[in-house]
Design brief:
The protein contains 11 helices and 11 strands. It is of the alpha+beta class and about 270 residues long. β3 (about 40-45) and β4 form a beta hairpin. α6 runs parallel beside α9 (about 225-235). It is globular, with a radius of gyration of 20 Å. The model has no long low-confidence stretch (mean pLDDT about 90).
């Protein structure tokens, strides 16, 4: 297998002559995840902060378990860096790569990593939903955010990319929104947590439904009117509302059903 490796200049200089994979396997920092062969942490180097996702190899047991569950096992950080590169090409805001690497033929023991710059001074759209319960947005702000989220979703899906964890918590914007409660055309949106992303020529309908149903479910605490939902459908489909509701009625019913199943599951979990 061809070796894939990249370090941006400042990291290459700092770690010159080191086995980077070995170094990253024990790199100290603020750890967010450390299980199933994967470590996610924030570290600092020369006053600059980065995020590291290091994969040590998931083992055959994890691979076989996923295959029996008809799920594609995540055996490398490659998904993440390839998705980041694709999103940049599409003009969709996301993380900035500082390094990545992969080595090893054995899929169960393959080592890999991806390093990105820390996205600072940001907040997730999930928090906006909570904020809007206390402070309602202007019509223009709500309209702009729904349209931009729909357009980002359409652009991603039309390019053959589906996220697989497409929730509001994985879309960030500048935390200054918390004070202004205003969003404009210039407000940057960032799509994160791309390790499960799939990329192909065309996204099958079932994966479109999963992405959009998950996104819709994650907005259940936002007070969305029927017009808000129609606005998303119109901008995502690129059709007139009448055409979208006529030609794609079955599709949007499936999205609604997916969101409702997730909501029922969420309610059941919270009541137990």
């Amino acid at each position: 297998m061809k070796k894939h490796f990249y370090l941006r200049e400042e990291l290459a200089h700092a770690w010159q002559g080191r086995d980077v994979f070995e170094l990253l396997s024990t790199l100290p920092g603020e750890v967010f995840r450390d299980k199933e062969g994967r470590r996610t942490l924030r570290f600092e180097l020369d006053g600059k902060r980065y995020f590291l996702k290091y994969h040590a190899g998931v083992g055959w047991g994890e691979i076989i378990k996923n295959l029996f569950q008809f799920r594609k096992p995540i055996i490398s950080a490659r998904n993440e860096w390839v998705a980041i590169e694709h999103l940049h090409e599409l003009g969709i805001g996301t993380m900035t790569l500082a390094g990545y690497g992969e080595r090893g033929l054995n899929p169960a023991r393959r080592e890999s990593f991806v390093i990105t710059d820390e996205l600072t001074e940001t907040m997730s759209l999930e928090h906006i939903g909570l904020q809007w319960q206390q402070c309602k947005p202007t019509f223009r702000t709500k309209q702009t955010l729904i349209r931009r989220l729909a357009e980002m979703s359409r652009k991603m899906h039309q390019a053959g990319i589906n996220h697989r964890d497409y929730y509001l918590c994985h879309v960030l914007l500048n935390e200054g929104f918390a004070e202004t409660n205003q969003i404009t055309e210039d407000t940057a949106l960032f799509l994160i947590d791309l390790h499960r992303t799939q990329i192909r020529q065309r996204v099958p309908e079932r994966w479109l439904v999963k992405d959009l149903g998950s996104l819709y479910f994650s907005a259940h605490e936002v007070q969305l009117s029927q017009r808000d939902k129609y606005r998303f459908i119109k901008n995502y489909s690129g059709l007139s509302l009448h055409q979208a509701l006529t030609k794609q009625a079955s599709f949007w019913q499936k999205v609604e059903a997916r969101a409702q199943r997730l909501l029922d599951k969420w309610h059941k979990h919270n009541q137990s």
